[in-house]
Every structure is written in structure tokens, then in C-alpha cells.
Design a protein that fits this description.
Elements: E1 8-16, H1 23-34, H2 44-70, H3 77-92, E2 97-105, H4 110-119, E3 124-129, H5 136-150, E4 158-161, H6 169-183, E5 190-196, H7 200-205, H8 229-243, E6 251-256, H9 269-278, E7 283-287, H10 296-312, E8 317-320, H11 328-340
Parallel strand pairs: 1-2, 1-3, 3-4, 5-6, 5-7, 7-8
Helix pairs in contact: 1-2, 3-11, 6-8, 6-11, 9-10
């Protein structure tokens, strides 16, 4: 323990969720979310007009209906699982730490979480955006907001950010155990790893030395593409597939939830599932490894909407692997990330826990496995 007896603050930050499934609260959430310049990369005035005059007014009632399907007695799963994770992580750490949960949009806010850590006079802050794969619109936005707030403090403690952890061994093990809950029940012909999509332009803007081509360059993971969201998604999928003994031809990486007319990273999940059905594949196990808690994009989009589409296209079984939520290995992963960043204020995490290798392009749809 430090001689001053001051503590270390841990700030866990997820994307956010409306305060309720009422249309007004959903509209408020959408406005805050989509007005973030890292989410909708338009100049301020066009962005304001698009969000406030088109998207929020027309999308809020539909989204509110979807949130009502998701809502439980404790509220939004993304929020109450976040609270559970916060409490479990606090229990797993010693009294030297103070763990707070925040949301990038809505409540509890990042401002609130940082205010509480400032009042506690912490000597060090470890911020962990709860997004395994780095993207400007997620981890980048969280880091941006934290720095915007902390830079106004008169006294600024040391601050560490865990920007990404796509192949952390405990993160992978937690997903493997979740998958085995389904694999022990039945056999599947194909595995689909579906991640939230982002515009191609965001990949290109973040490319080092123009390396990222949004194609075969994602077949290996190294320093030049360590912050490429698509490359990280492929890395997560490769390591998961290896741990589950799934050969490259039996799994596909795809991207969901695209919005607007601009190109988003491919392949698109809705198109892939139709192609799988056309190939005669009947039983699919689906993952959502970009999300660590149940939310609209996992439970309803991948779990329900894509299941319906797959069955209509001729498939027979579509099973979603449960999100990490409060899995013990997920708590252990977060604890390890905290401890890695505690000793001297440096992030000791490696870019990848796996050697750099060139692998077949698993984005291509595999033939039926019978």
C-alpha cells in the first residue's frame, strides 16, 4: 500500500442504455449517442440535422418497442450486468481499489464516475472501456471523454487506458465456456462470429502507413494493424476457433448493424446467413464477441432477428452463445487487466498473445459440413 494510503480508481465504461424503454428516454439516448462525432463522422450542422430531424424522431418509437422486449425487472441487461461486474470486480480486488461503473451515454455518466474517484482522492485511475476490440466510435470515444474531463482538474493523477484486449486468454476462456454450454447439447455445422460493424472510412482514417485495405490484411495481427477494428475481430475469432477446435472452413466472421448509405466493413451478417442456408448448412452457432453483456444487438438482433431470417432461408437451428455478462472468467479477465496496469502506470499487455501467422480468409463462406 502506498504510504499516503490513497487508493487506485478503476473506471469500467460501457456504451450506455436508455433510462427506460419509454420513447422519450430512448430518443434522448439516441440523440446523445448519435451526436458523438466519433459515432457519426459528419460536420456538426449536418450531423445535428440528421440526428435531430431524421434519425431520433423516427427511430425512437421503433427502438423503444425493441427495448421493451429486452427490459427486465432490474432494467436494461447491459446496465444491471455492468453493476454486477462492478461489484464482483470490487470483491475480487483488495481495499486499495475503488471500482466505478459508467456509461458513455446516459447514466451513470463518465462525469459522475470520475467525480466520485476525484472525491476519493485516488492516486491512479485505470479506465477500461468494455469493448474488447478497439474502434474510434467505442473505446476511442470513451478515452476522448475521460481525457476531456480529467484535463480540467487542478490535480491530475496518473491515468491508464486499456484500449483493447481482443485475445486476452481469460476473455477467450470465458467465451469458450459459454460456447461449450451449447456444444455439449448438440452438434453444429457452422459457427458464425458476428461483430458490430463500422464504416469503412473509420478503418481507413486510422490506418498506419495506409496498411489497412479492409481485406486479406486482417488475416494476421501485428503492430501495423493492432488498432484496426476488423483485424482485431478476426483475431478474436481465430483464437476462439483454435480453442474450440473449429477449422477455418467451418466458421465465418461477419459484421452487423450497419446504418446509412456509406460502405461498412464486410461481410454483412444478414447476407452471410442467407448464403449459409443456400449452401445447405442447417445448424449454426452464433457468437457476438464485440459485446460483453446482453443488449439489443445480441439478444434481439443476433438471437431473434437473424434466427428468424435463417430459418426462413431454409436453416433449422440458430443458437446464440450467451454474452459474458457476469461470468467468473470475465471478472478474472478484468482483474488481470487492472493488475497489469497497477504497478507503475504502464500498460504491460502485449499486442497479441498469439504469434503472427498468415491464415486462410475465414470471411469466406464455407461449404456445408455434413
Amino acid at each position: 500500500m502506498n504510504k499516503t494510503n490513497s487508493k487506485i480508481g478503476v473506471l469500467l465504461v460501457n456504451l450506455g442504455t436508455p433510462d427506460s424503454p419509454k420513447t422519450g428516454d430512448v430518443r434522448r439516448y439516441l440523440r446523445e449517442f448519435l451526436m458523438d462525432k466519433r459515432v457519426v463522422d459528419y460536420p456538426l450542422i449536418p450531423r445535428w440535422m440528421l440526428v435531430n430531424l431524421i434519425i431520433a424522431p423516427f427511430r425512437a418509437p421503433k427502438s423503444a418497442k425493441e427495448y421493451r422486449k429486452l427490459w427486465e425487472d432490474r432494467g436494461s441487461p447491459l446496465k444491471f450486468y455492468g453493476e454486477d461486474v462492478r461489484d464482483l470486480l470490487q470483491e475480487s480486488l483488495n481495499d486499495e481499489y475503488i471500482v466505478k461503473l459508467a456509461m458513455r451515454y446516459q447514466s451513470p455518466s463518465i462525469q459522475q464516475g470520475l467525480d466520485e474517484l476525484q472525491k476519493a482522492n485516488v492516486r491512479h485511475i485505470i479506465c477500461i472501456p468494455l469493448f474488447p476490440q478497439y474502434a474510434s466510435a467505442t473505446s476511442g470515444s470513451v478515452i476522448d471523454k475521460v481525457m476531456e474531463i480529467v484535463k480540467t482538474w487542478q490535480i491530475i493523477p496518473s491515468v491508464n487506458f486499456v484500449s483493447h484486449f481482443p485475445d486476452h486468454p481469460l476473455f477467450i476462456e470465458a467465451h469458450v465456456e459459454r460456447a461449450r454450454e451449447q456444444l455439449d447439447k448438440q452438434e453444429f455445422e457452422h459457427v458464425l462470429f458476428s461483430y458490430h460493424g463500422i464504416p469503412v472510412s473509420q478503418i481507413e482514417k486510422g490506418s498506419q502507413d495506409n496498411y489497412c485495405k479492409v481485406g486479406d490484411c486482417c488475416n494476421s495481427f501485428h503492430k501495423k494493424n493492432q488498432f484496426c477494428y476488423r483485424a482485431q475481430c478476426f483475431q478474436t475469432s481465430r483464437v476462439l476457433a483454435e480453442k474450440l477446435n473449429i477449422p477455418p472452413e467451418k466458421y465465418t466472421v461477419s459484421f452487423q448493424s450497419r446504418l446509412g448509405p456509406v460502405p461498412w466493413i464486410r461481410p454483412y451478417t444478414d447476407e452471410v446467413l442467407e448464403e449459409l442456408a443456400e449452401k445447405g448448412i442447417k445448424k449454426v452457432l452464433a457468437f457476438s464477441p464485440a459485446f460483453v453483456a446482453d443488449c439489443l444487438e445480441t439478444t434481439l438482433e443476433v438471437g431473434d432477428e437473424y434466427k428468424e431470417d435463417f430459418l426462413e432461408a431454409g436453416g433449422e437451428v440458430w443458437q446464440l452463445v450467451e454474452s459474458l455478462n457476469d461470468h467468473p472468467k470475465w471478472i478474472a479477465c478484468l482483474k488481470d487487466l487492472v493488475l497489469q496496469n497497477t504497478a507503475d502506470g504502464r500498460n504491460t499487455q502485449l499486442v497479441s498473445s498469439q504469434p503472427e501467422v498468415e491464415l486462410p480468409d475465414s470471411s469466406k463462406v464455407a461449404p456445408s459440413i455434413n
